[in-house]
Structures are given as C-alpha cells and as structure tokens.
Write a structure and sequence with these properties.
7 strands, Rossmann fold, alpha/beta
Length: about 280
C-alpha cells in the first residue's frame, strides 16, 4: 500500500533519523550552581524524539553574574561553561525532562543538550530551546543571525528569568539584533500556547528559590509577571518570554520540600504546554 499517510510517516521517520544522525554528542559543562556531581541517568545515551536544548551564549559585560565571575577570578570562557547560561543547569533541565516523560507520551531524552550558536552545523538540529538569565546575554551579530534563521525555519525558544527594567534593557540589546522588525507583545490568555495540555488561565508570578529565601517574590522593579512573545508571519509564536518569573528555578527545585509546590506546578505545566505547542505549530 502506498498511501499518503504512509508516505508522510516515512518522511517524518527519515527527518527524525536525519536530525539524530547530525546532532553533536552529549557533553556536561561546569555549572555556576553549587552542585555536587550529578550522576548521569543510565539511559542518557538513548536516541529520542525530543531533547531539552539549552542555549549557550556570551556574557554581557554588565551582567549580573559578571560580578560572580570576577569574584572567582574572572576570565571564564562561556563556551566552556561556568557563566550565566549555566544558571539552573543541569538540574532544572533534567527535572523538567523527567516531568515531561511522566506527563506526556513524548519520547524524551533524560539529559539536556547545551547548544552553541557559533556552531551553525549543529544549531538547527534542536527544534526546542530554553535559556535563562536573559539580562546577561550578549549575542554577536553572527549569533543573532543564526538564532533568527533558526526561529524562522520553525524553531522555538523559551527565554526566562530576567527581572525589571535594567535586565530587560540588557536583554533587548541582543533581541533587537535577532528581530529588529518584529514586536514583542503580551501573549493573549486565549492563545493556544496556554491550552495545549493544561488550561493555564490562572497564571501568577513564579519566584526563584533565591527570592523566597529573602522573603519576597521578585528582584529589582520586576513585581509584575509578563508572558510575552514574538510571532512569525503565520501567527506562530517563535519566542516565548517569561519576564519577571523564574520558571527555571521552579523546575530546578521541584524536588525540594522547602520550595512551594504551587510554583513548580505552574512552571512544569507551562513548560509542558510550550513543548507541545512547539512540536505541533
């Protein structure tokens, strides 16, 4: 039988196999987080249909975590880890991957994949990306062009954990290089991205563990949470921004009894909706 459905299925299988064939091998980088060594899951080399790709990026000269780097001697090469892009990594990535496995039927790899925008041969092999501490990134023109091309080809990126006017302005320095001609807008609550697996009409600020330790839920002037996005010409969200929230911490500390369950519940549900949206739009 040579049906259109069969041909489509075969094409999809070829596409997935092609992506897997050209993806860079898994590697662990040093994290800024004060973790002990995190053991690798026994199935970390499994070939799957979805991988948590974490965007690596150069650090802004005025980055909040630049002070951290200088305190430890500075001079860290972002391409080797231990700079702002490693905030929450890899614990948040692996916790979210485990949750996505339990809550959906998506075939999920148990470990993350850091992805370098200077490596354009590999960059397009990872259809869903996440990045945090967005007030700390500083893309070059070439890296911005690569990210723009990735998104216009159908990629999706979730940008998280930046707070208030100062961090927004540093974030926007690079974002306007990526899309100087596309507005950043508030995502309407009726948009499908909030209704893929969970109906997320009741969204609220998700604080980081660091904020709760101080007895607050935010930093700087970032008291009001925003769910913003950038759309392509077909009305698909390419860039999803969780501004004035720390979804990464809600994944990272999901197993900590001191971190309130209500925040991890929303953060994980939001991530699940974003992944399913990206895979179907």
């Amino acid at each position: 039988m040579n049906s259109p459905a069969l041909r489509l299925g075969c094409c999809g299988l070829v596409l997935i196999c092609g992506l897997i064939a050209f993806q860079r091998p898994f590697r662990v980088y040093p994290s800024m987080e004060p973790y002990d060594d995190i053991p690798l899951p026994p199935d970390y080399q499994e070939k799957t249909e979805w991988v948590f790709a974490r965007l690596m990026y150069p650090q802004h000269p005025n980055a909040r975590f630049g002070r951290f780097s200088r305190r430890f001697g500075g001079g860290f090469d972002w391409r080797e880890g231990f700079t702002s892009w490693t905030q929450d990594y890899p614990r948040a990535d692996r916790h979210f991957a485990a949750a996505l496995r339990r809550l959906t039927r998506i075939n999920v790899r148990s470990v993350e994949q850091p992805v370098n925008p200077d490596d354009s041969d590999d960059f397009y092999n990872w259809p869903w990306m996440n990045a945090g501490e967005m007030g700390d990134w500083k893309l070059t023109g070439a890296e911005a062009r690569t990210l723009r091309e990735y998104l216009l080809r159908g990629g999706f990126i979730m940008l998280d954990d930046f707070w208030g006017t100062e961090e927004w302005n540093r974030f926007y320095e690079s974002m306007r290089l990526v899309f100087p001609d596309r507005p950043i807008v508030e995502i309407d609550g009726k948009d499908p991205i909030f209704h893929m697996v969970y109906d997320l009409d009741d969204r609220y600020q998700v604080p980081g563990q660091w904020a709760l330790a101080r007895g607050t839920t935010y930093r700087n002037d970032g008291s009001i949470p925003h769910w913003r996005g950038i759309y392509d010409d077909r009305g698909r969200i390419m860039v999803a921004l969780t501004f004035n929230s720390d979804i990464g911490d809600s994944w990272e500390w999901a197993d900590d009894p001191e971190y309130p369950e209500k925040y991890s519940a929303l953060g994980i549900r939001l991530g699940v909706d974003y992944v399913v949206y990206a895979m179907t739009h």
